[in-house]
Amino acid sequence: MIETARLILRPPTPADHAALFAMWGDPLVTADLGGPKDQAACLAVLERHRGYAPLGFGVVERRDDGQVIGHVGLKPGAPDTPIAGLLEIGWMIGRDWWGGGYAPEAAAGWLDWAWANRHEAAVYAITGRRNTASQRVMDRLGMRHVPEMDFLHPKYPDDPALADSVTYRIDRP
Fold first, then answer.
1. What Pfam families does UniProt report for this protein, alphabetically (predicted)?
2. Which of 13, 116, 135, 157 is buried deepest, with most CB atoms within 10 A?
């Protein structure tokens, strides 16, 4: 478990499923992640992320009220991308909490954990070129765009706008 000023970052439990399913089912939240997922697909994501231990990819819980507001953490970069096998950070925050600074706070907590517990020289993040909100989070974290690693994501072969992806990197302090 990781604690920040306003958040607890922890593994998901079955009690978190409703909140996570609502986020993954929201077309606006998932617009740059391939669109909404049904409950079966959400459970598959949770199972896949559980396999990333000890890296950890879990829920974002607000300390003041226990509300689950997102999903964030570290994982191996996806196959068939320029960051395959490299340490990747990713996040998703529910729409009701957009603009509250929760994504950079949660991601910064995981980056601190990575520098203290991992050996990698850098952490990477990818997102759609059109996802300027995630790129602003990356900028706030001190990540830098690595244009030579931009790519067309193979998960979205039928949607060139969604496939057009950018890569960011932050080096170990």
1. Acetyltransf_3
2. 135
The secondary element (H helix, E strand) that includes residue 23 is helix 17-24
Q: Where are the domains of the chain?
A: 2-171
User: Sign of torsion, CA 93 104 48 61?
Assistant: negative
Give CA–CA dist 119/36, Å, rounded. Answer: 35
Report whether 145 contacts 136 (CB < 8 A): no
Topology of the domain covering 2-171: Aminopeptidase (3.40.630)
pTM for this prediction = 0.92
The string over 14-33, giving b where at least 16 C-beta atoms fall within 10 Å of a residue's C-beta and e elsewhere, is: eebeebbbebbbbeebeebb
Write out pLDDT tens, residues 61-114: 999 999 999 999 899 998 999 999 999 999 999 999 999 999 999 999 999 999
Q: Return mean pLDDT, the chain.
A: 92
Determine the average pLDDT of the residues in 47-63: 77
